[in-house]
Fold Signal recognition particle receptor FtsY.
Amino acid sequence: MILWFGKKNKKVELEDAGAQMREPELSAEELAAKEAAEKAEAERKAAEEAAEAERKAAEQAKIDAAIAEANKAWEERQKREAVEAEDEAARQKAENELKILEERRRAEAAREEARRKEEERQAAIARGEPDPYAEIRDPGFFDKLSGGLSKSSSKLGTGLTGMFGGRKLDDDALEDLEDLLIMSDMGAKVSAKITSNLAKTRFDKDISDDEIRIALASEIEAIMKPREQVVDFADGPRPRVVLFVGVNGSGKTTTIGKIASKLKEQGAKALLVAGDTFRAAAIEQLTVWGERAGIPVLSKPTGADAAGLVYEAIEKAQREDLDLVLVDTAGRLQNKAELMSELAKIVRVTRKLDPDAPHDVILVLDATVGQNALSQVEAFRHTAEVSGIVMTKLDGTAKGGVLVAVAEAHALPIHFVGVGEKAEDLQPFSAEAYAKALVGLGQEETV
């Protein structure tokens, strides 16, 4: 057997013995020098290690300081955000309180205006003058309005039926009611306002279908009451220039004809102006209404300058000492700049003869367009300085709720509502009657 491991050990032993033999012995001086060198090397390494430890300690101190600064900044930011949140909450609370105060102020103003009008009405009656609100208070008036709004009231009433029978007015019920009001074309803003007001006094209380109808009518009337204004065309200067504006098909010409018929019955001397020179049918239609009412109509061939025609009409009325100049204008879309510019030109031309003319600019809105009516009001009031509103075709749509949205969004008087084709179907606007008819209440039911 070959003992490789034993041979290897022997070899190592021989090499170690040889190394010891080769290593010379050092003198005392050399040993002292060697020890001094080793000591110096050890001290150098110790100094380096101390310096490295100091450097690391300095770096850690910087890191600790940075962390402390970051923590301090975070705490300060948290405190600042907490203060800002408190300030925002306080601001929101103040804004909400101001809104509530403003709503109360508006409601009080509406009640005060209603009292003032009633005092004026009573004073006029005492002087032997006709009651300006007699037509509104006539039971036949309410019957026509209710009939005209039957589609809208049916849509709203059907949704209300069974919704609140013995149910609490909780969050779910309020959400259902808000959805119903939105679907009735009152718009999101009005619907939210109405449900919010109901929640203030009736939240989590049992409420019946009839009670909710009465409450809704009250809220709707409060919104619309400040817009109620029975227009008296006998007031103001003579001749009183009344401009009718609106989009195509809104019912301007028919509205003018109906108003002319009423004014003729009351003895007014008026002149109708076929300012829609773009459509021959409009000229013919206004002529027919003029013949029915026995009121002259001033017109020109199709394509003539509408502003020039209006100028001639005012001159004629001034010469003949007429009471009224009722001007039909071409239907125009609110997004057509050139047509809106032409309307502005008509307004400028009237002021060459009377700086205060036109004395009324009545915007005729078609109820069937729903929420689009809001953008129409916005466009026309800035172009033609709209002073009042007529809402037509309420008998042909379930979108009667849009008039509530218009009343909320725009501080413009609502003069008339149209609920049919006949002259007597154009009725003075009554907030109380409209609100009751819209939710399906009877005239005598208390709001």
Remarks:
- The beta strands are 167-168, 206-207, 240-245, 270-275, 297-298, 324-329, 360-366, 388-392, 414-418, 426-428.
- The chain is about 60% helix and 10% strand.
